[in-house]
Design goal:
Blueprint (H helix, E strand, L loop, with lengths): L5 H15 L11 E6 L10 H19 L3 E3 L9 H10 L3 H16 L17 H16 L3 E11 L4 E3 L4 E2 L2 E2 L7 E10 L5 H6 L9 H11 L1 E11 L5 E6 L10 E4 L4 H9 L1 H10 L6 H6 L4 E10 L2 E11 L10 E4 L5 H10 L7 E2 L19 E4 L8 E3 H15 L2 E7 L4 E2 L1 E2 L9 E4 L3 E4 L21 H4 L5 E3 L6 E4 L3 E2 L1 H4 L3 H4 L11 H7 L4 E5 L5 H15 L14 E4 L2 E9 L5 E4 L4 E4 L2 E4 L7 E7 L10 H8 L1 H10 L7 E2 L2 H19 L12 H21 L3 H17 L4 H15 L4 H10 L23 E8 L2 E9 L4 H10 L1 H7 L6 E5 L3 E5 L1
Parallel strand pairs: 1-2, 1-25, 10-12, 25-26, 27-32, 33-36
Antiparallel strand pairs: 3-4, 3-7, 5-6, 7-18, 8-9, 8-11, 8-17, 10-13, 11-12, 14-15, 15-16, 19-24, 20-21, 20-23, 22-23, 27-28, 27-31, 29-30, 33-34, 35-36
The chain binds one RNA strand through helix 7, helix 10, strand 18, strand 19 and helix 17.
Protein name: Leucine--tRNA ligase
Main location: cytoplasm
Enzyme class: ligase
RNA sequence: GCCGGUGUGGCGGAAUGGUAGACGCAGCGGAUUCAAAAUCCGCCGAUGGCAACAUCAUGUCGGUUCGAGUCCGACCACCGGUACCA
């Protein structure tokens, strides 16, 4: 054996795994385990975040393999989406070529990392074989009543005459044109996810192995609320305005009725009155995001119309059009209660509308001025005037009482409402899955016939002008109506890329099937036992996937057991890196790549010039800040095993980890040290001093136990810390050659999920049978884990003052006596008697004086 | 704005309500060496003290508890999401 040379051993073992087909998943009699990491977008290069994410999945996959599971660990590409079109616009290429080239490049980067992936199942969502099956799913969902069309607002760039994504709107303006964006309505396709609101909410409770924070975020997103739907009669006798409110108890504090600029009444008024039309046009300016709507300036327009308060025929309220009221929520109309809602208060102060309190704090009442009084619904308050005769009651009690009164009086109805809106899937873009429907003049909207799938994207398109190339393609839209055969036009909207990623996990179970799934394969492999990905997907992707699994079950593509597709979820943190920054000649910040910088003690300087640079620690890696490291370079410099070890060693997996060159070097030194220990086994003595072999065995089995626990609970950093510790013990151990060889063999096994190439090399060197990958996981000898004595810290008034070591089974009374007799305790007692003595067996003793 | 999260030495972090700082980095000291690389050993939160030891210390302020990094309340800062980025 020679020095540790990852560049030699890593390709060798990767070839060996390939040749043995180690990672090819076939159905078998063994219990299955499906581990999946969120598949990547083919941006062109993998980054350290991918390395960390996929290494975590790999550790799980390899560990489960060693535990006797039949492991499925596939990989593919989330390949549709805007960046490909942006690239085509910027440099004139074609999204398809750009995407497939990126896939080839990234795959070439991924292979050297030695991940246990079954590449035979690979697909990209832009493969017609994939999106054709997605079109089939769409048609089945359409038939099942889970898809429909309605109007919805988009960001419209009036200069480029095109729809913009939210990220293409910067400060209310189009990123290319700089024009003020406006909200415009288009007829679009929707999935009826709202039909599953209740079920998606209730089933969250069954997701035992999901992070609590993700479940909480999803529950809040679905947003179940109980409120009142009621009408305000117009004083002009032209009917009523229907509003929805979650705070009907504040009805006596109403000071206006507000409607959305997209409300039918607003539209009707706008037709007759130019000033209304002008206001509505102004109110539609800006982007469609919830954030933009919530934080933007609140604008109102007094229509001059009035309505009657439902509980007081003499009380008239003005009707305002307000830009912060969304047609999508509730009925598109509200009543404003400024005293108990900050937004309504701001609005009323701005437009000089009255502010009436309906309840006050039990103590310390201060009249509302510029801050609305909004206590939690669970807090009791004093009611000023409440029609249900309440005096002191909580908000929730008042809401319930109000709904009861309204229903009894027949002027309102309690309704359960969800915040969750239907999923708009239409995108006015080229690089996505075409929606397989046809528009026929006589038959209307007609689904495409399944035998005509896939409806392929045309290749001959250009991106020199904004807008959807499918819309302006000379022939692609022309087709025959599937129903009557007359000339008709294809739908030119494509699907949201979230559709692509909502069922890929199911497709991996039978990636070449002629139908979306193969039910036998799905029944065997589903569910995903462990899903791993970024917290940024906590709501949308994961909620859409949960909906899709239900829809696929309803349409016969998944068994009932798979409606919650991910048994366990883990959300990992980012890989960060310091930013190196200096001031350029014009005073603007100049960023430097890590390899241009050298650290000298506490300072960091540019290698070339010696100029000192500012170090900003732990920032998300981004190309513009140049704080990136390329996995290719890292593997070439340190080897894949070092990269894998380091990304998991320094930080708990759910938290961010900072990539540092010194940390990577330390990881490599450690692996070289393990290597050296193995190569020097021959120098160990045949016979060991008394007890040395037993000591080593004890340490080994404690390590097997701890590392196993670490892998079972995503404690990779803790497992690695234990491996560091055991390696140090092993290096110093005077144990016999035989005992040390055994320990090294077990060490290789424990390290194999993390550093599989090094582990294989050691395993082979020490005469292990076959490959260490998949060799049965070492068993813990429980009898070696028990200690017969225990060290107890002694606290006085919660401060540690001393410790005692006692036999594990010592009685409480004996311990108490020992503690009281202890010199340090005597000193603290100062001759007095303790007030209290707390003995927590095996943990701690606390003396209270 | 709203929802969720995070905050501990010079740095990354460890710690079932029970000895705060495991393990690693950086730094300092030493061994080995002609010298270096590599390797090995030791020290390493702050303040005071020769030392024993004492005091302070887990974003800030309060609370619960024999005991709080951990639980509760308020606040500050940063990060993720906010339905067309993926």
């Amino acid at each position: 054996m020679s020095r540790y040379a990852p560049s030699e051993i890593e390709p060798k073992w990767q070839a060996a795994w390939d040749e043995a087909g180690t990672f090819r998943a076939e159905r078998s009699e063994q219990p299955k385990y499906y581990v999946l990491e969120m598949f990547p977008y083919p941006s062109g290069r993998i980054h350290m975040g991918h390395v960390r994410n996929y290494t975590m999945g790999d550790v799980i996959a390899r560990y489960k393999m060693a535990r006797g599971f039949n492991v499925l660990h596939p990989m593919g590409w989330d390949a549709f989406g805007m960046p490909a079109e942006n690239a085509a616009m910027a440099s004139g290429g074609h999204p398809k070529e750009w995407t497939y080239q990126n896939i080839a490049d990234m795959k070439a980067q991924m292979k050297p990392l030695g991940w246990s992936l079954d590449w035979s199942r690979e697909f990209a969502t832009c493969d017609p074989e994939y999106y054709g099956q997605q079109q089939a799913l769409f048609l089945d969902m359409l038939e099942a009543g889970l898809v429909y069309r309605k109007n919805a607002v988009v960001n419209w760039d009036p200069v480029d005459m095109t729809v913009l994504a939210n990220e293409q709107v910067e400060n209310g303006r189009g990123w290319r044109s700089g024009a003020e964006v406006e909200r415009r309505e288009l007829t679009q396709w929707f999935f009826k996810i709202s039909a599953y609101s209740e079920e998606l909410l209730d089933a969250i409770d069954s997701l035992d192995d999901w992070p609590a924070k993700v479940k909480l975020m999803q529950a809040n997103w679905i947003g179940k609320s109980r409120g009142l739907r009621m009408g305000f009669q117009r004083t002009d006798g032209q009917g009523q305005i229907e509003v929805y409110t979650t705070r009907p108890d504040t009805l006596m504090g109403a000071s206006f009725v507000g409607i959305s600029p997209d409300h039918p009444l607003a539209k009707q008024l706008a037709e007759a009155r130019p000033e209304v039309a002008a206001f509505c046009a102004e109110a539609r300016k800006g982007g469609t995001t919830e954030e933009a709507l919530e934080t933007g300036e609140k604008l109102g327009f007094d229509t001059g119309l009035t309505v009657t308060h439902p509980l007081d025929p003499d009380w008239q309220l003005p009707v305002w059009i307000a830009n912060f009221i969304l047609m999508d929520y509730g009925t598109g109309a509200i009543f404003g209660c400024p005293a108990h809602d900050q937004r309504d208060l701001d609005f009323c102060r701005k437009y000089d509308l009255p502010v009436v309190e309906t309840f006050t704090a039990l103590e310390g009442h201060a009249p509302v001025t510029d801050e609305a009084y909004v206590p939690p619904k669970t807090e009791p308050v004093k009611w000023v005037k409440h029609f249900a005769g309440l005096d002191v009651a909580t908000g929730q009690e008042a809401i319930d009482a109000t709904i009861a009164v309204a229903e009894q009086g027949g002027w309102g109805k309690g309704v359960t409402q969800y915040r969750l809106r239907d999923w708009g899937l239409s995108r006015q873009r080229y690089w996505g899955c075409p929606i397989p429907v046809v528009h026929c003049e006589s038959c209307g909207v007609v689904p495409e016939r399944k035998e005509n799938l896939p409806i392929r994207l045309p290749d001959d398109v250009s991106f020199d002008v904004p807008g959807n190339p499918l819309d302006r393609h000379p022939t692609w839209r022309d087709c025959a109506c599937p129903s009557c055969g007359a000339p008709a036009r294809r739908e030119t909207d494509t699907m949201d890329t979230f559709v692509d990623s909502s069922w890929y996990y199911a497709r991996f179970t039978a990636p070449r099937a002629e139908t979306p799934t193969d039910l036998d394969a799905a029944a065997y492999w589903m569910n995903v036992d462990q899903y791993i990905g970024g917290i940024e997907h906590a709501i949308l992707h994961l909620l859409y996937s949960r909906f899709f699994a239900r829809a696929m079950h309803k349409t016969g593509h998944l068994p009932a057991s798979a409606i919650e597709p991910f048994n366990a979820l883990f959300t990992q943190g980012m890989v960060t890196h310091a930013i190196y920054k200096s001031a350029g000649a014009d005073g603007r910040a100049v960023y430097h790549f890590p390899e241009e910088v050298e650290t000298q003690g506490e300072r960091a300087v540019l290698r070339e010039t010696g100029q000192e640079v500012e170090v900003v620690p732990s920032a998300k890696m981004s190309k513009s800040k140049r704080n990136v490291v390329d996995p290719d370079d890292i593997v070439a410099r340190y080897g894949a095993d070092t990269a894998r070890w380091f990304v998991l060693s320094d930080s708990p997996p759910e938290r961010d980890v900072e990539w540092t060159a010194s940390g990577a070097e330390a990881a490599q030194k450690h692996l070289a040290r393990v290597w050296r220990i193995v190569s020097e086994l021959g120098e160990a003595p045949e016979a060991a001093p008394q007890g040395a072999d037993e000591e080593l065995a004890k340490a080994l089995h404690r390590t097997i136990h701890d590392v196993t626990m670490g892998f079972e609970s995503f404690g990779f950093n803790a497992a690695i810390a234990k491996l560091y510790g055991f390696t140090a013990t092993l290096a110093k151990s005077p144990a016999s050659r035989g005992a040390k060889t055994e320990a090294c063999r077990a060490l290789a096994q424990l390290m194999s999920p993390l550093t599989p190439h090094l582990a294989e090399e050691i395993w082979a060197e020490l005469g292990g049978e076959g490959l260490v990958t998949g060799a049965p996981w070492p068993q813990v000898d429980e009898s070696l884990l028990v200690d017969d004595s225990v060290t107890l810290p002694i606290q006085v008034n919660g401060k540690r003052r001393a410790e005692i070591t006692v036999p594990k089974e010592m009685a409480k009374a004996e311990i108490e006596a020992l503690v009281l007799a202890h010199e340090a305790v005597q000193k603290q007692l100062n001759g007095g008697a303790p007030k209290k003595l707390i003995v927590v067996p095996g943990r701690i003793v606390n003396v209270v004086v």
